[in-house]
Amino acid sequence: MRALLFGLALLCGWPSWAANRCDVAVPTELAEVGEVRLAYQSIGRASDPALLLVMGLGGQLIHWPDEVVARLCQQGFRVIRFDNRDVGLSTWAQQPPVSNLSYAALRYKFGLSVTAPYRLRDMAGDALGLMDRLGVRRFHVLGASMGGMIAQHMADLAPARVLSLTLLMTSSGAQGLPAPSPALLDLLAQREAPNRQVAIEQQADLLAALGSPAVHDDRAQLLQQAQVAYDRAFNPQGAQRQILAILAEPSRVDLLNRLRVPTLVVHGTADPLLPVMHGVHVAAHIQGSELKLIPGLAHRFQEAFKEPLLAAVLPYLRAHRRPVGLAQL
User: Fold this and answer.
1) Residue 171 CB neighbour total at 10 angstroms
2) pTM of the prediction?
3) What is the share, in percent, of the chain residues with pLDDT greater than 90?
4) CA atoms within 13 A on the CB side of 327
5) Of 187, 209, 210, 211, nearest in space to 199 by CA
6) What is the SS3 assignment for 48?
7) Residue 3 within any structural domain of the chain
8) How far is 282 from 292, CA to CA, in rounded Å?
9) Alpha carbons 60 and 250: distance in angstroms, whole number
10) Could you tell me which of 161, 328, 169, 172 has the C-alpha nearest to residue 261?
Protein backbone atom coordinates (compact mmCIF):
# COMPACT_ATOMS: atom_id res chain seq x y z
CA MET A 1 0.00 0.00 0.00
CA ARG A 2 2.84 2.40 0.86
CA ALA A 3 4.43 1.72 -2.52
CA LEU A 4 1.12 2.37 -4.26
CA LEU A 5 0.65 5.70 -2.46
CA PHE A 6 4.22 6.67 -3.32
CA GLY A 7 3.58 5.86 -6.96
CA LEU A 8 0.39 7.93 -7.00
CA ALA A 9 2.24 10.84 -5.42
CA LEU A 10 4.86 10.68 -8.13
CA LEU A 11 2.21 10.61 -10.83
CA CYS A 12 0.33 13.56 -9.32
CA GLY A 13 3.54 15.52 -8.95
CA TRP A 14 4.80 14.83 -12.49
CA PRO A 15 3.55 18.05 -14.15
CA SER A 16 5.13 20.20 -11.45
CA TRP A 17 8.39 18.28 -11.62
CA ALA A 18 8.54 18.55 -15.40
CA ALA A 19 7.82 22.29 -15.24
CA ASN A 20 10.62 22.83 -12.73
CA ARG A 21 13.05 20.80 -14.82
CA CYS A 22 12.20 22.92 -17.87
CA ASP A 23 12.26 26.32 -16.17
CA VAL A 24 13.42 28.78 -18.83
CA ALA A 25 14.30 31.43 -16.24
CA VAL A 26 17.81 30.06 -15.78
CA PRO A 27 20.82 32.38 -15.56
CA THR A 28 22.58 33.40 -18.74
CA GLU A 29 26.17 32.16 -18.58
CA LEU A 30 29.30 32.98 -20.58
CA ALA A 31 31.69 30.59 -22.31
CA GLU A 32 35.07 31.43 -23.82
CA VAL A 33 35.17 29.83 -27.27
CA GLY A 34 38.30 30.63 -29.23
CA GLU A 35 38.32 34.32 -30.07
CA VAL A 36 34.78 34.97 -28.86
CA ARG A 37 32.78 34.82 -25.65
CA LEU A 38 29.30 33.36 -26.10
CA ALA A 39 26.31 33.99 -23.85
CA TYR A 40 24.08 30.93 -23.44
CA GLN A 41 21.36 29.28 -21.41
CA SER A 42 21.00 25.56 -20.71
CA ILE A 43 17.46 24.39 -19.87
CA GLY A 44 16.82 20.85 -18.68
CA ARG A 45 18.89 18.02 -17.25
CA ALA A 46 22.52 17.66 -18.31
CA SER A 47 21.92 13.92 -18.68
CA ASP A 48 19.23 14.41 -21.37
CA PRO A 49 20.06 14.49 -25.10
CA ALA A 50 21.14 18.01 -26.03
CA LEU A 51 19.28 20.17 -28.55
CA LEU A 52 21.16 23.27 -29.70
CA LEU A 53 19.07 26.19 -30.99
CA VAL A 54 20.82 28.49 -33.50
CA MET A 55 19.16 31.86 -34.08
CA GLY A 56 19.02 33.93 -37.26
CA LEU A 57 20.25 37.32 -38.41
CA GLY A 58 20.47 39.85 -35.59
CA GLY A 59 18.44 37.57 -33.32
CA GLN A 60 19.24 37.00 -29.67
CA LEU A 61 18.65 33.88 -27.61
CA ILE A 62 15.52 35.54 -26.18
CA HIS A 63 14.00 35.43 -29.67
CA TRP A 64 13.41 31.72 -29.18
CA PRO A 65 9.97 31.95 -27.52
CA ASP A 66 10.10 30.70 -23.94
CA GLU A 67 7.03 28.52 -24.39
CA VAL A 68 8.62 26.84 -27.43
CA VAL A 69 11.84 26.21 -25.50
CA ALA A 70 9.84 24.74 -22.61
CA ARG A 71 7.90 22.45 -24.94
CA LEU A 72 11.12 21.21 -26.51
CA CYS A 73 12.58 20.54 -23.06
CA GLN A 74 9.44 18.66 -22.01
CA GLN A 75 10.13 16.18 -24.81
CA GLY A 76 13.17 15.10 -22.80
CA PHE A 77 15.81 17.36 -24.29
CA ARG A 78 18.41 19.56 -22.67
CA VAL A 79 17.78 22.74 -24.68
CA ILE A 80 20.71 25.10 -25.20
CA ARG A 81 20.15 28.52 -26.73
CA PHE A 82 22.84 31.15 -27.23
CA ASP A 83 23.69 34.52 -28.73
CA ASN A 84 25.72 34.29 -31.93
CA ARG A 85 28.81 36.45 -32.11
CA ASP A 86 27.98 40.11 -32.75
CA VAL A 87 24.55 40.01 -31.08
CA GLY A 88 23.14 40.00 -27.58
CA LEU A 89 25.59 39.48 -24.75
CA SER A 90 28.17 37.63 -26.83
CA THR A 91 31.36 39.21 -28.22
CA TRP A 92 30.87 42.09 -30.64
CA ALA A 93 33.46 42.38 -33.41
CA GLN A 94 35.48 45.58 -33.56
CA GLN A 95 35.73 46.04 -37.32
CA PRO A 96 34.04 49.22 -38.59
CA PRO A 97 30.73 48.75 -40.42
CA VAL A 98 30.69 48.33 -44.18
CA SER A 99 30.46 51.70 -45.89
CA ASN A 100 27.95 50.54 -48.50
CA LEU A 101 25.93 47.44 -47.72
CA SER A 102 23.86 47.98 -50.87
CA TYR A 103 27.03 47.70 -52.96
CA ALA A 104 27.88 44.39 -51.27
CA ALA A 105 24.36 43.12 -51.98
CA LEU A 106 24.73 44.14 -55.64
CA ARG A 107 28.01 42.22 -55.93
CA TYR A 108 26.29 39.18 -54.40
CA LYS A 109 23.41 39.48 -56.88
CA PHE A 110 25.82 39.31 -59.81
CA GLY A 111 27.85 36.46 -58.36
CA LEU A 112 30.85 38.59 -57.46
CA SER A 113 32.92 38.11 -54.31
CA VAL A 114 31.93 39.90 -51.11
CA THR A 115 34.36 40.66 -48.30
CA ALA A 116 33.25 39.90 -44.75
CA PRO A 117 34.96 40.14 -41.34
CA TYR A 118 34.01 36.49 -40.70
CA ARG A 119 32.07 33.71 -42.38
CA LEU A 120 29.07 31.57 -41.49
CA ARG A 121 31.51 28.68 -41.16
CA ASP A 122 33.31 30.62 -38.42
CA MET A 123 29.97 31.01 -36.64
CA ALA A 124 29.40 27.26 -36.99
CA GLY A 125 32.80 26.77 -35.35
CA ASP A 126 31.62 29.01 -32.49
CA ALA A 127 28.59 26.78 -31.93
CA LEU A 128 30.64 23.59 -32.02
CA GLY A 129 33.12 25.17 -29.61
CA LEU A 130 30.30 26.02 -27.22
CA MET A 131 29.23 22.37 -27.15
CA ASP A 132 32.86 21.41 -26.50
CA ARG A 133 32.95 23.76 -23.52
CA LEU A 134 29.73 22.22 -22.21
CA GLY A 135 31.18 18.74 -22.58
CA VAL A 136 28.52 17.63 -25.07
CA ARG A 137 29.92 15.32 -27.71
CA ARG A 138 26.79 14.54 -29.76
CA PHE A 139 23.64 16.60 -30.05
CA HIS A 140 20.67 17.65 -32.15
CA VAL A 141 20.62 21.02 -33.94
CA LEU A 142 17.66 23.25 -34.75
CA GLY A 143 18.49 26.37 -36.76
CA ALA A 144 16.24 29.17 -38.00
CA SER A 145 16.94 31.39 -41.02
CA MET A 146 20.64 32.35 -40.86
CA GLY A 147 20.83 29.91 -37.95
CA GLY A 148 19.77 27.20 -40.40
CA MET A 149 22.64 28.19 -42.67
CA ILE A 150 25.04 27.97 -39.73
CA ALA A 151 23.54 24.58 -38.83
CA GLN A 152 24.26 23.33 -42.36
CA HIS A 153 27.92 24.15 -41.82
CA MET A 154 27.90 22.46 -38.41
CA ALA A 155 26.62 19.22 -39.93
CA ASP A 156 29.29 19.45 -42.62
CA LEU A 157 32.13 20.25 -40.21
CA ALA A 158 31.18 17.59 -37.64
CA PRO A 159 28.74 15.05 -39.15
CA ALA A 160 29.53 12.46 -36.47
CA ARG A 161 28.43 14.87 -33.75
CA VAL A 162 25.12 16.05 -35.19
CA LEU A 163 22.44 13.46 -34.40
CA SER A 164 19.72 15.29 -36.34
CA LEU A 165 19.25 18.55 -38.17
CA THR A 166 16.08 20.64 -38.18
CA LEU A 167 16.16 23.60 -40.56
CA LEU A 168 13.47 26.27 -40.26
CA MET A 169 12.79 28.98 -42.87
CA THR A 170 16.31 28.82 -44.30
CA SER A 171 18.12 28.63 -47.65
CA SER A 172 20.85 26.97 -49.67
CA GLY A 173 22.08 30.36 -50.83
CA ALA A 174 21.98 29.21 -54.46
CA GLN A 175 21.72 31.69 -57.29
CA GLY A 176 18.38 31.93 -59.06
CA LEU A 177 16.12 31.45 -56.03
CA PRO A 178 13.35 34.02 -55.49
CA ALA A 179 14.60 37.20 -53.82
CA PRO A 180 12.86 39.22 -51.12
CA SER A 181 11.41 42.58 -52.03
CA PRO A 182 13.83 45.54 -52.03
CA ALA A 183 11.63 47.24 -49.42
CA LEU A 184 12.07 44.32 -47.02
CA LEU A 185 15.82 44.27 -47.61
CA ASP A 186 15.94 47.99 -46.81
CA LEU A 187 14.13 47.36 -43.52
CA LEU A 188 16.51 44.51 -42.72
CA ALA A 189 19.59 46.63 -43.32
CA GLN A 190 18.18 49.72 -41.57
CA ARG A 191 19.78 49.21 -38.20
CA GLU A 192 21.21 52.66 -37.43
CA ALA A 193 18.97 54.95 -35.39
CA PRO A 194 19.49 58.32 -33.69
CA ASN A 195 17.82 57.23 -30.45
CA ARG A 196 16.13 54.39 -28.60
CA GLN A 197 12.58 55.22 -29.70
CA VAL A 198 13.44 55.31 -33.40
CA ALA A 199 15.35 52.03 -33.10
CA ILE A 200 12.37 50.36 -31.43
CA GLU A 201 9.97 51.69 -34.08
CA GLN A 202 12.26 50.42 -36.86
CA GLN A 203 12.45 46.96 -35.30
CA ALA A 204 8.67 46.82 -34.92
CA ASP A 205 8.32 47.75 -38.60
CA LEU A 206 10.68 44.92 -39.53
CA LEU A 207 8.81 42.41 -37.38
CA ALA A 208 5.54 43.42 -39.03
CA ALA A 209 7.04 43.04 -42.51
CA LEU A 210 8.34 39.55 -41.67
CA GLY A 211 4.95 38.41 -40.44
CA SER A 212 2.21 36.58 -42.26
CA PRO A 213 -0.37 38.65 -44.18
CA ALA A 214 -2.99 36.27 -42.78
CA VAL A 215 -2.30 37.47 -39.22
CA HIS A 216 -3.02 40.91 -37.81
CA ASP A 217 -0.15 41.99 -35.56
CA ASP A 218 -0.79 44.02 -32.44
CA ARG A 219 1.48 47.05 -32.85
CA ALA A 220 1.82 47.50 -29.10
CA GLN A 221 3.00 43.90 -28.77
CA LEU A 222 5.56 44.34 -31.55
CA LEU A 223 6.87 47.48 -29.86
CA GLN A 224 7.12 45.61 -26.56
CA GLN A 225 9.12 42.80 -28.19
CA ALA A 226 11.41 45.33 -29.86
CA GLN A 227 11.88 47.19 -26.58
CA VAL A 228 12.91 44.04 -24.69
CA ALA A 229 15.46 43.17 -27.37
CA TYR A 230 16.83 46.73 -27.52
CA ASP A 231 17.23 47.00 -23.76
CA ARG A 232 19.06 43.67 -23.57
CA ALA A 233 21.50 44.57 -26.35
CA PHE A 234 21.51 46.80 -29.43
CA ASN A 235 24.30 46.34 -31.98
CA PRO A 236 23.29 47.48 -35.48
CA GLN A 237 26.84 47.13 -36.79
CA GLY A 238 26.85 43.50 -35.72
CA ALA A 239 23.75 42.80 -37.80
CA GLN A 240 25.44 44.41 -40.80
CA ARG A 241 28.50 42.18 -40.34
CA GLN A 242 26.22 39.13 -40.15
CA ILE A 243 24.58 40.19 -43.42
CA LEU A 244 28.05 40.33 -44.97
CA ALA A 245 28.76 36.82 -43.69
CA ILE A 246 25.64 35.62 -45.54
CA LEU A 247 26.51 37.49 -48.74
CA ALA A 248 30.11 36.22 -48.68
CA GLU A 249 29.03 32.67 -49.58
CA PRO A 250 26.55 32.56 -52.45
CA SER A 251 25.83 28.81 -52.52
CA ARG A 252 25.93 25.78 -50.22
CA VAL A 253 24.59 23.29 -52.76
CA ASP A 254 27.76 21.19 -52.82
CA LEU A 255 27.77 21.14 -49.01
CA LEU A 256 24.13 20.03 -48.91
CA ASN A 257 24.74 17.33 -51.51
CA ARG A 258 27.33 15.66 -49.27
CA LEU A 259 25.34 15.78 -46.03
CA ARG A 260 24.21 12.42 -44.64
CA VAL A 261 22.68 13.68 -41.39
CA PRO A 262 18.97 13.00 -40.68
CA THR A 263 17.31 16.26 -41.66
CA LEU A 264 13.90 17.89 -41.43
CA VAL A 265 13.27 21.06 -43.47
CA VAL A 266 10.32 23.24 -42.40
CA HIS A 267 9.26 26.27 -44.40
CA GLY A 268 6.27 28.57 -44.66
CA THR A 269 4.34 29.16 -47.84
CA ALA A 270 4.09 32.90 -47.09
CA ASP A 271 7.74 33.61 -46.24
CA PRO A 272 8.51 37.13 -47.56
CA LEU A 273 12.26 37.02 -46.89
CA LEU A 274 13.13 33.53 -48.11
CA PRO A 275 10.21 32.47 -50.32
CA VAL A 276 9.08 28.86 -50.06
CA MET A 277 11.29 27.63 -52.93
CA HIS A 278 14.31 28.24 -50.69
CA GLY A 279 13.12 25.50 -48.33
CA VAL A 280 12.15 23.20 -51.19
CA HIS A 281 15.61 23.66 -52.70
CA VAL A 282 17.36 22.84 -49.42
CA ALA A 283 15.37 19.63 -48.99
CA ALA A 284 15.98 18.61 -52.60
CA HIS A 285 19.73 18.66 -52.06
CA ILE A 286 19.95 16.79 -48.72
CA GLN A 287 19.73 13.07 -49.30
CA GLY A 288 16.90 11.45 -47.34
CA SER A 289 15.61 14.71 -45.87
CA GLU A 290 11.97 15.36 -45.00
CA LEU A 291 10.15 18.51 -46.09
CA LYS A 292 7.17 20.02 -44.30
CA LEU A 293 5.48 23.15 -45.63
CA ILE A 294 3.25 25.18 -43.31
CA PRO A 295 0.49 27.13 -45.07
CA GLY A 296 0.56 30.82 -44.21
CA LEU A 297 3.76 30.73 -42.14
CA ALA A 298 6.02 33.70 -42.85
CA HIS A 299 9.44 34.47 -41.33
CA ARG A 300 8.63 34.89 -37.65
CA PHE A 301 7.53 32.86 -34.65
CA GLN A 302 4.05 34.36 -34.62
CA GLU A 303 1.61 33.13 -31.99
CA ALA A 304 -0.83 31.77 -34.59
CA PHE A 305 1.85 29.48 -36.02
CA LYS A 306 3.54 28.18 -32.87
CA GLU A 307 1.35 25.09 -32.68
CA PRO A 308 1.70 24.24 -36.39
CA LEU A 309 5.47 24.66 -36.07
CA LEU A 310 5.62 22.45 -32.99
CA ALA A 311 3.38 19.89 -34.68
CA ALA A 312 5.90 19.72 -37.53
CA VAL A 313 9.04 19.63 -35.38
CA LEU A 314 8.22 17.69 -32.20
CA PRO A 315 7.36 14.30 -33.77
CA TYR A 316 10.58 14.42 -35.79
CA LEU A 317 12.71 15.22 -32.76
CA ARG A 318 10.99 12.52 -30.68
CA ALA A 319 11.67 9.98 -33.41
CA HIS A 320 15.37 10.83 -33.46
CA ARG A 321 15.85 11.28 -29.73
CA ARG A 322 18.41 8.86 -28.34
CA PRO A 323 17.94 7.05 -25.02
CA VAL A 324 19.17 9.06 -22.02
CA GLY A 325 22.95 9.08 -21.88
CA LEU A 326 23.64 7.76 -25.36
CA ALA A 327 23.55 11.22 -26.97
CA GLN A 328 26.53 12.22 -24.86
CA LEU A 329 28.79 9.35 -25.98
Assistant:
1) 25
2) 0.91
3) 77
4) 25
5) 187
6) coil
7) no
8) 12
9) 24
10) 161
